[in-house]
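Q: I have 420 residues here and want to know how they pack in 3D. Can you give me a structure?
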Amino acid sequence: MQEYEFFFLSLNRSFIMTIGTDEQGLVDFLSMFSLSVDAENSIIQIRPFQQTTLELRNNINSFVDKHKANTPQVHSLRQFVEGIGEGEFFFFHPNRNFSTQDIVTIGNYLRAANGNEDFELLTSQTQESLGRVLENYEPVAYANSRRTMIGESERKKRVCRFCGQSEPVVKFRKVAHAISESLGNKSIILNEECDTCNEVLGDEVEIDMINYLSLYRTFFTVHGKDGIPKMKEKTFRFQHLKDREFAFVLQGDNTATEYGPPKAIIAKTNQRVALQNIYKTLCKYALSVIERKYIPYFTETIEWIRGRKDFSELPKIAMLTTYQFMDSVASPAIIVYRRKTNDKNLPYLVGEFHFTCLVFIFVVPLSSQDDRTFTYSTDYDGFWNCFPYSRIQDTNWKFDDFSDSQKRLLEFKIKLLQRK
């Protein structure tokens, strides 16, 4: 039995379906998406852009019911189509290595077809905002929308990305989340992180990121490893009650006075956080999702993440608070941009991390493919101007220094506005 691969893309998701079937099964499958079938000459003409109709849904359901016993993978096709609105267009093609530019072009066509937008205008806008990025970088995105297993599937063949060890020296029995599970990631799994690194880096590095984002985890009701966190801190308590109801109890000097409630409060926690560990965690997320073959370029980066190399001056992290990119479910996502050109005015690897209403854009430092640190303003500005976010209007980007490796008490400054 021969295997065939097909690529599906909608505005919300993509997947590659591998099916193993006989010749008649392949004909049945392709016929659902065909313009015409010439059985005499074994020619099936395929429409790459498909539109979901009741007829197509019924045909797919019949096909899945017929072949699911011998080809379980066909269930993915039904799930894909069920996630698409009636009359919505999607892309279907025998699988090949589509470039990022191909995907962007196909996506623009789908946006135009589904939203009655002008394809040429979308293409022009994309080129203006993403042109330089796509010329220099290969972006790959990972979101918490579907289960993704990264790296070697066979346990005995795994090599840990962060210590270089394999079995039997280390074990791979625990589920290692590419983004911390406490931030709501249940689906993006790294096969190539051993139990020891998972525990040590989680307890010594990632915990600072989890605490740093604790207020957002509670406010946006992020379901982590132990559910939605309840904060019982030095000067306040904060917890989710039900629906969009919360309890925020102040203690100490932040209480109301005879003039009314304070305009701002300093919410002091009991947690000590090192800002450099925030940066390390972001870089760990990025190195968890890139292809294994690029890991040797980041030997020094990994030594720094593990605390075996000091790096006292880091590039600034660009931070933005926005609801523009927020999904209805507050799930984390990461995009990694790997430089595909020899232009060393640009960093080799850039990460973009989304969590609730926050966006972090950061350079992954210490790559052997870089000849500069991007800590000097001229180098950093050159990198930043390459990215489309630098041209988003009406946004308030902050560029913060996360080089401090000292553990300090975490505080939140919260502004209070009186409801009109």
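Q: Anything worth noting?
A: The longest strand covers residues 264-273. The mean pLDDT is 86.
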